[in-house]
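Researcher: We're teaching a course module on how sequence relates to structure. For the next exercise, students receive a sequence and then see the predicted structure as tokens, so they can try to spot secondary structure elements on their own. Here is the exercise chain.
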Amino acid sequence: MRREIVSLGLSALFLGSVPLSAQNFTGTYTVRAPAGNVVTLVLRQNQNGKIQGELSGNETFVQIEGRLEGGNFLGTATSGGVTGFAAASLSGDSLQFMIADFGPDGKPNFATAQAIVLTRGAASAAPPPAAPSGRAPAQEPPAAGADQQLAQLLQSSPWCSFQYNQTSGRTSTSRYVFLSDGTVSFGNNTEGGTTNQFGGGSVNLGGGATGSVYSQSQGGGRLRWKVQQGTLHLDDGKGFQPVALKVTRNSSGYPIITADGTEYSQCN
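Model: And here is the predicted structure for the students to work with:
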């Protein structure tokens, strides 16, 4: 299934949903993607709890079908002849919607699932009103929209990196979680390694085995973060410093963040 909708990460789906008797998913829900275009989800619920609808936007069209179970929507999402698992939770006008591929065992593969949060009602796409003749049009700060989009992307899910050194055999991983309170928690782990660049275990000319040496180190902490003028800034206690950051998408449509030369992808 194409994954070019909006990758906002897995939310706390099914938490805080209202009782079944009060639940009605009928409506139009929208969210503005980081690229600026609008993703729209239209749902129709009948008196028996059956729900049908369509998700469209970002060059994607998905047919939705399912029913109410325990106050939540459970069903399927079909796009391009491929069907996956779909679920949604409604809290007021906020709808958390998730799509996951089915694994070989026929069960949803939640490790690769994606979720978006939409709001009931049409997204505003009207251009700013024209200024009176002879006056320059009012403009909002040029980076305001970009700042919000980048902040939403960073908070959409944890971000992880993985690096492997073929020569030393060492692996390095890190995980960053951006929080709405302006802090980011991070953890890193390094393990492996050998004293012999050819893999260890050989015998040197002096008769001693070079062998291999395994080591492991872990660390972590918390930083402050903010997005300003479309750029991420981090503060480790010495003041905010800009981070060289670029956002791209891989061949499957998932967002990839490259920060200071290291690639980060969404993770659990």
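Model: If you want an answer key for the exercise: The chain has a mean pLDDT of 75. Residues 47 and 88 are 18 Å apart (CA to CA).
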